[in-house]
Specification:
About 40% of the residues lie in helices and about 25% in strands. It is globular. The strands form four sheets. Strands 10-12-7-13-11-14-15 form a seven-stranded mixed β-sheet. The protein has helices at about 5-25, 70-90, 110-125, 175-185, 185-190, 200-210, 215-225, 240-255, 270-275, 280-285, 305-315, and strands at about 35, 45, 50-60, 90-100, 130-135, 140-150, 165-170, 225, 230, 230-235, 255-260, 295-300, 320-325, 330-335, 340. By secondary structure, the chain is of the alpha+beta class. The chain has eleven helices and 15 strands. The protein binds adenosine-5'-diphosphate and magnesium ion. Adenosine-5'-diphosphate binds near residues 21, 41, 98 and 134.
Length: about 350
């Protein structure tokens, strides 16, 4: 970006660890719920009703590549994936803590952009980056811990037989975006890609690099009651693919989740790219990771009301994709073209 890397590296070492923390924290704002943010030995928070804590770690060359993403978007994503967990619990975010390992060749400009990305998400969802820790290392690692408040947490264990499965947004777009990036590195497939319009490429890459945590959507679902009882029984956020993640609810709740594969919400953009690459957008929707949409188990009588209220308030599409049935041998069953079969798993790190 027109700045000599050598000069920036020098800036970083001239600043030193404390100078760097002070420099980065200058542009951060302290918001409601936090009495004291960065600067002391620990942050001071105000009382929470039911604190929830979640933690996610992004490792260079495992979860991100510095030549593919900008530091601004990396900062946003690091917080958004934690917010997505927070949303799935039915919690309001309060304070985030960032443990940062600064890799070799990272300069001050890169860190400035990373923190601009982090702060932009704090501003979007009204919480505070209240502290962290800084170290140097061979590659960059960004670990975010998020504290939230969930007066009535929504658990994976609450699904009831008969519940309708709702998902927010569209599924598989993040996988489609990743497949575009991968295809661009292979000569054979890179020749096909010019047929993907710039707008489609942009849309899918932004779903991959800048997912929207569904906090607002969850807030709407939490408010809907029937005879004074919450109609949302269980939820989780989809980070590793619907087919695999659905297992967690099934196993925790002692039920089976039946997913109608033909009903999955798939964007036209994802369909277009899948067709060009000769693969299936439905596969991406079922087994692609990093969608960060919510899967909710909702009382059948209220599922329309929940879906409609969420869409009315947030403009986010909500689709019924299946139902909760009594426990079978398989935790997750998919139905496609009338055929009922056990769902295969999804992405795993090990
Ligand atoms: P200590 O050595 O007592 O742990 P540090 O020097 O690591 O203190 O941190 C000083 C302050 O700066 C603390 O408030 C800490 O939370 C904050 N901090 C340190 N590193 C970061 C970081 N990467 N991002 C945000 N805040 C940080
Ligand atoms: Mg420290």
């Amino acid at each position: 970006m027109g700045v000599e890397p050598g000069r920036e590296l020098m800036n970083l070492s001239t600043l030193g660890e404390f100078g760097l923390i002070q420099h980065l924290s200058q542009k951060l704002q302290t918001r409601a719920g936090v009495s004291l943010g960065i600067g002391d030995d620990a942050a001071v928070l105000q009382t929470l009703q039911t604190p929830i804590v979640t933690c996610d770690c992004l490792v260079e060359n495992v979860h991100f590549r510095r030549d593919w993403t900008t530091p601004f978007l990396l900062g946003r994503k690091a917080l958004s994936v934690n917010l997505s967990d927070c949303a799935a619990m039915g919690a309001r975010p309060v304070a985030a803590f960032v443990a940062l390992v600064v890799g070799e060749n990272v300069d001050l400009l890169w860190l400035d952009e990373l923190y601009r990305g982090l702060e932009s998400v704090c501003a979007d969802f009204d919480f505070t980056l209240a502290g962290g820790d800084t170290s140097r290392g061979a590659q960059t690692v960004l670990s975010v811990t998020l504290l939230g408040d969930a007066p009535n947490p929504v658990l994976r264990s609450g699904a009831q037989v008969g519940d309708v499965l709702l998902v927010t947004g569209t599924l598989g777009d993040s996988a489609a975006g990743l497949q575009i990036l991968l295809a661009e590195t292979v000569e054979e497939t890179s020749r096909i890609l010019p047929q993907v319009s710039a707008a489609t490429r942009e849309d899918l890459l932004s779903r991959h690099f800048d997912p929207t945590p569904r906090l607002r959507e969850m807030n709407v679902a939490l408010m809907i009651q029937n005879h004074g009882e919450r109609v949302l029984h269980a939820a989780l956020d989809l980070s590793d693919g619907l087919a695999g993640d659905a297992r967690h609810i099934a196993n925790r709740s002692g039920v089976t989740l039946e997913i109608n594969a033909d009903a999955l919400p798939i964007s036209p953009q994802s369909r277009d790219v899948a067709a060009l690459l000769g693969t299936s957008a439905q596969e991406w929707a079922l087994r692609g990771g990093e969608d960060y949409e919510l899967l909710m188990c909702v009382a059948p009588r209220s599922s329309h009301a929940v879906a409609q209220s969420i869409t009315a308030a947030t403009n986010t599409l909500v689709t019924a994709v299946g139902r909760v049935v009594p426990r079978e041998a398989e935790p997750v069953i998919t139905i496609a073209n009338g055929e009922r079969q056990a769902a295969r798993g999804a992405f795993e790190h090990f």
